[in-house]
Design brief:
By secondary structure, this protein is of the alpha/beta class. Helix content is about 40%, strand content about 20%. It binds pyridoxal-5'-phosphate. Pyridoxal-5'-phosphate binds near residues 95, 120, 245 and 360.
């Protein structure tokens, strides 16, 4: 049996959380990544950096986002359910918390150009947005299939002045876009900062992105204390693509053992269907996109193409910190199928008047999978809004109406 690990919130100096993390990168990226490793904490700790970050989070991104007591949902589950409204952030999801932070960091590193990868297009839009804000040149790599699936976000990025570059390899989705972005960075290392959109990639990205997203649970603690007299809920639930919104929602609770942390993974058509993105259920330890982590792979270590109805969850692995928190037993994972997510998302529309991103609907679906103690307090991180997913919901609704499921 594998040994459990002691839960770590921060990586060690080599970027490891337990046996996960590190920086597995080509020689030609060493200088860039090392520059980041050496400087990110000092820059983020700088007073003028923090002042500008806080101002932009407040006036530009719209933080703090509300912690909403969902009364009708609470009645349905006989619990006190709060929704952390990241769907109300500028650009429609939590991703802007990270892109604002990283663009400020890039400026202080003297980088003039920004590249990014995107799946659902949410991170691409969040990156194009802050590049417009700062007048920086922006290239966004996106799988060609995702470009088809997410046309409105492609349009948004272009409106915002970014160049969208299609990734034609593999499944033509997020993983392939990430590969292309890394390849580009190798050839343009000196003047370009790569804004990674989740808690993945080589050290220091997982830690850096986690710190930028930790504002989510920093606010939850304050808001919950104000509303209930107790900063600690019984459970926090969040969905996991790469893991950035979940990490942000869990971060300030990792050391509170009494708070149960539950991550929702995309099971696609079912864990055993061959069409899934359930990285902890199906994954093994290995190196993916620059770090040692858990991802879906064949016996000889090739990445298994992930599938989820939701482009933001369509990633074969999870970030190294989450892989470590899974192994240490701190974070519990639930696998949620496409259908379960859609049903839960559509129920929220009718119960609370909120149309969630299908990613977030995976977190909502967890309510039907866990034991809930009457009257307990549950926080669900509503990572984004569902405007981009309307067509998928509407199609599903018409199947429900026609009784063909
Ligand atoms: C991108 C995205 C996700 C998945 O990414 P994480 O890094 O796991 O948070 C989840 N929800 C929404 C709305 C997204 O846009």
């Amino acid at each position: 049996m594998e040994e459990k690990e002691l839960t770590q919130l921060y990586p060690n100096e080599k970027g490891y959380f337990g046996s996960f993390g590190g920086a597995f990168i080509p020689e030609m990226l060493h200088a860039n990544v090392q520059e980041l490793q050496e400087q990110y904490l000092a820059i983020m700790g700088d007073t003028s950096f923090q002042e500008e970050l806080q101002l932009l989070l407040h006036d530009y991104a719209g933080r703090p986002t509300p912690l909403y007591y969902a009364k009708r949902l609470s009645e349905k589950y006989k619990a006190n359910i709060y929704l952390k409204r990241e769907d109300l952030c500028h650009t429609g999801a939590h991703k802007v918390n990270n892109t604002i932070g990283q663009v400020l960091l890039a400026e202080r590193l003297g980088k003039k150009k920004i590249i990014a990868e995107t799946g659902a297009g949410q991170h691409g839009v969040a990156t194009a947005t802050v590049c417009a804000l700062k007048g920086l040149e922006c290239k966004v790599f996106m799988g060609e299939l995702d470009i088809q699936r997410q046309a409105p976000n492609v349009g948004r990025m272009k409106l915002l002045g970014a160049e969208v570059i299609p990734a034609m390899s593999g499944n033509r989705t997020l993983k392939d876009a990430t590969n292309e972005a890394l390849r580009y960075w190798i050839n343009h290392a000196s003047d370009t900062h790569y804004i990674i959109g989740s808690v993945v990639g080589p050290h220091p990205y997982p830690d850096m992105v986690a710190r930028f997203q930790s504002v989510i649970s920093e606010e939850i603690r304050k808001q919950l204390l104000e509303k209930t007299g107790n900063a600690l809920p019984n459970k926090v639930i969040a969905c996991v693509g790469g893991g950035s919104n979940a990490t942000g929602a869990f971060f300030n609770y990792i050391e509170d053992d009494g708070v149960e942390l539950i991550a929702a993974e995309a099971a696609g058509l079912g864990i055993d269907s061959g069409e899934s993105a359930a990285a902890t259920f199906l994954g093994k330890r290995g190196v993916l996109h620059g770090s040692m982590t858990t991802f879906m792979q064949t016996d000889d270590g090739q990445v298994v193409e992930p599938y989820s109805i939701s482009a933001g969850m369509d990633y074969p692995g999870i970030g190294p910190a989450l892989a470590h928190w899974f192994k240490s037993g701190r974070v519990h994972f639930e696998a949620v199928t496409d259908d379960e997510a859609l049903v839960a998302g559509m129920a929220l529309c009718k119960t609370e008047g909120i149309i969630p991103a299908i990613e977030s609907s995976h977190a909502l679906a967890v309510l039907d999978k866990i034991d809930i103690i009457e009257g307990e307090t549950i926080v669900i991180n509503l990572s984004g809004r569902g405007d981009k997913d309307l067509e998928t919901y509407i199609k599903y609704q018409s199947k429900v109406d026609a009784n063909v499921l």
